[in-house]
Amino acid sequence: MPQYKLTYFDLRGWAEPARQLLHLSHTPYDDVRIPMADTEKSWENLKEKTPFGQLPVLNVDGFDIPQSAAICRYLARKFGYAGKNPEEEAWADAIVDQYKDFSVAFKTLIFAARAGKPQEDILKIRYEIFNPSRDAYFEILNKILKDNKSGTCLEKLKALDDDNEDHQKLRKYVEKIYSTPDLEDHIATRMDTEV
């Protein structure tokens, strides 16, 4: 059996979907987390050793796979979560790519808060950049759920509005995923981080 090592900072962030795929597939792995308090020092030492100078990185028997979406696509294909045929696999890839479009607005809001921008600037980003992007993304996700009848870490940003019916449909779907027996323990014991 291959040996897996996932390296990322000590938060959920871009590595969390890979962690969930590894838990769903009952695949043991080494979850290497760089403390955020040490980020600059640890990261400078590690940066030259990582492909593309970025994290997360999944190491499979000495072979490094960089980029969170590539890692998730690899794991999903390897463990049977990418679709049953090439068309379903392409559809899963399209959903990932749609998320990457949304993540630009998500990162803008997170980085503004981390940089200590004034509250009025953060609110402006939230209402002019993040919320419109979020609403467009959620509309797409709700359409996918409705069309597929198949039954995000956005709670920290309070991205799901209590008074929005479509947001509540997404919340119920997230709760359904989080209650999957193979994920329950991981969700219950994972580190509580900003992202």
Compact overview of the structure:
Helix content is 57%, strand content 10%.
Write the SSE topology:
Elements: E1 4-9, H1 16-24, E2 30-34, H2 39-47, E3 57-60, E4 63-66, H3 68-79, H4 86-114, H5 119-148, H6 165-178, H7 181-189
Parallel strand pairs: 1-2
Antiparallel strand pairs: 1-3, 3-4
Helix pairs in contact: 1-3, 4-5, 5-6
Domain GST N-terminal: 2-83
Pfam family, one: GST_N
GO molecular function: glutathione transferase activity
Q: Can you give a write-up of this model?
A:
The protein has helices spanning 16-24, 39-47, 68-79, 86-114, 119-148, 165-178, 181-189, and strands at 4-9, 30-34, 57-60, 63-66. It contains 7 helices and 4 strands; from the N terminus they run E-H-E-H-E-E-H-H-H-H-H. Strand 3 (57-60) and strand 4 form a beta hairpin. It has a 4-stranded mixed sheet. 57% of the residues lie in helices and 10% in strands. It folds into 2 domains: 4-81, Glutaredoxin, CATH 3.40.30.10; 86-180. The mean pLDDT is 82. Helix 1 packs parallel to helix 3 (68-79), helix 4 (86-114) runs antiparallel to helix 5 (119-148) and helix 5 (119-148) crosses helix 6 (165-178). Residues 2-83 form the GST N-terminal domain.
Tags for this model:
4 strands; single chain; 7 helices; 4-stranded mixed β-sheet; Glutaredoxin; 195 residues; 57% helix; 2 domains; alpha+beta
